[in-house]
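User: structure tokens for this one?
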Amino acid sequence: YQHGGVAEQLAALLPEGAVPVGNVAEVAMLTLSWLAHPPTVQPNTQFSLQVMQQKTLAVYHDVMADAGQES
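Assistant:
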């Protein structure tokens, strides 16, 4: 469903999978369609564990720098 962090991932990797929360009928329709004709999913280069950890640490470093605590 198109909600929270998953919405961001769907927008980048599989935009046609961004179904509004609770729209079970559309999920069912997409599932049947994809069983017959699988969608092309973009390579995941943005949401790997390593990339997400690096981005999280960068935020922490920025916060510390703003507080004058970074060494």
